[in-house]
Amino acid sequence: MKHGFYRVAAAAPKVTVADVAANTSEITSLINEAYDKGADLITFPELSVTAYTCGDLFHSATLLNATRSALAKIAEKSEKTPGMLISVGAPICLNNVLFNCAVFIADGKILAYIPKIFIPNSGEFYEKRWFASGSGMETEIEGVPFSANILINHCGVMIGAEICEDLWSPMPPSGRLAASGAEIIVNLSASDDLIGKYDYLKDLVRMQSAKCISAYVYASAGYGESTTDIVFDAKLFVYECGHLLAKNRRWQRTNQLIISDIDIETIRQDRRENSTFSTSAIHESKGFRIITNDNCHCSENNILLRTINPLPFVPENGDILTGHCEEMISIQVAGLAKRLEVTHCKNLVIGISGGLDSTLALLVAVRTFDNLGLDRKGITGITMPGFGTTGRTYNNALALMNALGITVREISIVPAIKQHFKDIEHNIENHDVTYENSQARERTQILMDVANQVNGMVLGTGDLSELALGWATYNGDHMSMYGINAGIPKTLVKYLTHYFAMSEYAGEERKALLDILDTPISPELLPAAKDGRIEQKTEDLVGPYELHDFFLFYTLRYGFTPSRIFMLATVAFKDRFERATILKWERIFFRRFFNQQFKRSCLPDGPKIGSISLSPRGDWRMPSDASSATWLADLDSIEA
């Protein structure tokens, strides 16, 4: 493995029914192609050596003799592809009983025969006419293990196999294989095409890879199979923990090959954290024989054959993103509605700055009030201009509040802060942390006191990214009575706000929302430039939120080392940031993430939205005085 990735290939050769020599030629050609592309493993369809649709020819000694010779030839040729594991489908005769097998081959020899367990005998498939189930078989053929209870340990990666119908059974063998350690499941299949079957099959493979917390490499028969009664379209998939990594283009009349890199480290981390999987592993991992092959294919190609999403919190598929936006907003609305109902509260107070976070909080509040049948006037939006407030954000805040029909209040914090500076003897020209934080705390005090006036609650606006970085004033914007955005990272706030703007609003509301989306992110605590432009830009100070959200995702979701996160970031952001830039901000991320935990240890309630939360009551329990030294030392080993 390189950097924790293992390269797999799925192939669908053009077959000629019962012409073993021709099929072997196509198979070896694809093996060589996959090897040249750095594959560690290649799997072929069910009965690919003979073709799946041979019918009663499977009883022919001529066909079976040719199959034995073909397997020996493939094994011999595998000496020229050292370190690559090969899985082909073939009929295997044992004690005059025929079995439908996955045959594993590497480095000049056959390693194992794994027979199909569930043999269909209905509809268009009548396999029981030719093949027996391999369930319970534990034997050898000329010293080579023959059993369905076999795992292949290839260079430290555990691989299991099931064949076609096995996956469709109520309890697929892949469940036990995964519980027993298989990190990659290969499925050698011959699944014909019927209306609607393709999408059903994709869902079946996707969910099995998700349930097994594994990679699933699926190869199904294609062009050249007999079309006497059914047609095969060649279906190739690579899934990892429920996510599609690669698929082929169907209905081709030539050899097909797909290749992708499996993130073994991700699979292992997910399994370590999943107590349900651990329980299954303890109770189910019995009776498996492990065949070890330590010879690895060390390709010199360092290009990663998979996409690393630079925005891991944001789905790359637009349709999925749209659906997710609605679902996330619904979670926020449900959380806030419950809090309002249980407290018998009909009034909310929100500080509206003209920035993204407070805008999203306001939009969620408005929808919640609409759903509950409450008057929007029960939402009090307060704009609190200070020393750094610009005309753009001020005007946008007012425009949005007025367009949404909520109660609008404007309370300048300047007089109060000037008095406060006199009280504590702070020079107003000294724009230090006291200068900034005093403004944030004054705004929070106003919100809390107005909430008392209207018998309401303060709705917090801070997001998940700010919590991770500690980019909040302690007991200032850090505090509220319900943190509605606590589960939403900054990169997602933008998409949710845009979704609101384009799907729910028009006119003045949309105009204000689009300008807010186009405004630089800023706390506006320092004076603006002479021409009114925002001088204090958050991402100039703490770094790009795209990078920080990337670091956050892989730190919390998978527990990766900083150096591995850096490697992934260099791939994901190769066209955006230099290595030195990524390294600089990753150091800052880990330093701030550790140093600012004390703020997260006393967070207000807020709904969890995705797989990551920093709530001290749930997903993230970390001592406030933990040291970042080990994580920073790992980064120090990287050459920028």
Write a concise keyword list for the protein shown above.
640 residues, alpha/beta
Give a summary of the structure in a few sentences.
The chain is of the alpha/beta class and 640 residues long. It has 21 helices and 22 strands. The strands form five sheets. Strands 15-14-13-12-11-10-17 form a seven-stranded mixed β-sheet.
Descriptive overview:
The chain has 21 helices and 22 strands. It has 640 residues and is of the alpha/beta class. Strands 15-14-13-12-11-10-17 form a seven-stranded mixed β-sheet. The chain has a six-stranded mixed β-sheet with strand order 5-4-3-2-1-16. α9 packs across α14 (490-503) and α17 packs across α18 (562-572). The protein is elongated, with a radius of gyration of 30 Å. It starts with a strand and ends with a helix.
Query: How does the helix and strand content classify structurally?
Result: alpha/beta
State the helical fraction: 25-40%
N-end to C-end Cα span: 23 Å
Radius of gyration equals: 30 Å
Number of helical regions: 21
Secondary-structure map:
Layout lengths: L4 E8 L7 H17 L4 E3 L17 H17 L7 E10 L2 E10 L2 E7 L5 E2 L2 E2 L11 E4 L2 E4 L2 E5 L2 E7 L1 H4 L4 H7 L4 E6 L7 H15 L3 E6 L15 E5 L2 E5 L8 E8 H10 L1 H10 L4 E5 L24 H25 L5 E4 L4 H17 L6 E5 L7 H14 L2 E4 L3 H11 L8 H21 L3 E4 L3 H6 L12 E2 L6 H14 L3 H11 L20 H4 L3 H12 L5 H11 L6 H17 L1 H4 L28 H8 L4
Parallel strand pairs: 1-2, 2-3, 10-17, 11-12, 12-13, 18-19, 18-21, 19-20, 21-22
Antiparallel strand pairs: 1-16, 3-4, 4-5, 6-7, 8-9, 10-11, 13-14, 14-15
Helix pairs in contact: 1-2, 8-9, 9-14, 10-15, 11-12, 14-15, 17-18, 17-19, 18-19
